TrEMBL record:
It is found in: Cell membrane. It comes from Ancylobacter moscoviensis. This is Amino acid ABC transporter ATP-binding protein. InterPro entries: AAA+_ATPase, ABC_ATPase_HisP-typ, ABC_transporter-like_ATP-bd, ABC_transporter-like_CS, MetN_ABC_transporter-like, P-loop_NTPase. Belongs to the ABC transporter superfamily. Its main location: membrane. The keyword Ribonucleoprotein does not apply. The keyword Transcription does not apply. Residues 15-260 form the ABC transporter domain. Pfam families: ABC_tran. Keywords: ATP-binding, Cell membrane, Membrane, Nucleotide-binding, Transport. One of its GO terms (molecular function) is ATP binding. It is a peripheral membrane protein.
Amino acid sequence: MSAVSPPVSADVPLLVVDDLRKSFGAHEVLKGVSLSVKPSQVVGLLGRSGSGKSTLLRCLNMLEVPSAGRILLEGEEIGFETGAGGRRRPLPAARLARQRAAMSMVFQHFNLWPHRTVLGNVTEGPVQVLGMSRDEAEARGLDLLERVGLKDKADSYPIRLSGGQQQRVAIARALAMQPKIMLFDEPTSALDPELVGEVLQVMLDLARSGTTMVVVTHEMSFARNACDEVVLLEGGQIVERGAPDFVMSRSENPRARQFFASHR
Ligand code: ADP
Ligand code: MG
């Protein structure tokens, strides 16, 4: 028997979401969402407030447990395993934690640890969760801070930074976990308008350097410039999807036209 693993192909999806459903009580918030994300692809999730974007993103790494459907990362189901006799059961916590670490999430509110320096924020996860040596974590952390333009702030505390700088640290912190995919939930929505651009620029650089990303955003120019595909969610269902120019400008789907007429 050969021990050689199959070649990784850019055509094989990294992430597959299959008929995902989520209800809160009697309220069905996700009504059967399916999508796939290939390596290095950037997928934008767009839609009105309340359409289910955050719930979808949170289900991807089991911050919310889906009511039905499956999520596969590199072919491995997230959160569940099939035991003897074919019974599907929740994964043990340690294995779920390992799967979660493969998907880093950046939130609207960056929640840096206030009592740790910028570099400390970026090194804590790799040391504690990945078991990296502190020296290696710091060397990598400084590289990541350089990448987000904040190497000179390594020894500062978060409270000394602007919101845009804090969010760039949060992105570096997420990258430090060496995830297979980055998930962003409206990362610029809490920022003063003049600070939005510096965060979007970092995200655009990541997108262009081959980072696999799923991004919930209301920044239409970012969706147009950075995304390979955009998905429009309405009432917990995907109502349109495709290349940004198609979905945002050329689709004849009335719901897409209506959404993009009021979101430019
Ligand atoms: P979006 O991110 O697109 O604004 P959300 O996914 O946050 O939408 O919310 C979609 C719907 O699910 C909303 O009606 C919201 O009130 C509801 N919802 C989200 N989270 C919960 C929860 N934990 N409990 C109950 N309802 C929720
Ligand atoms: Mg949301």
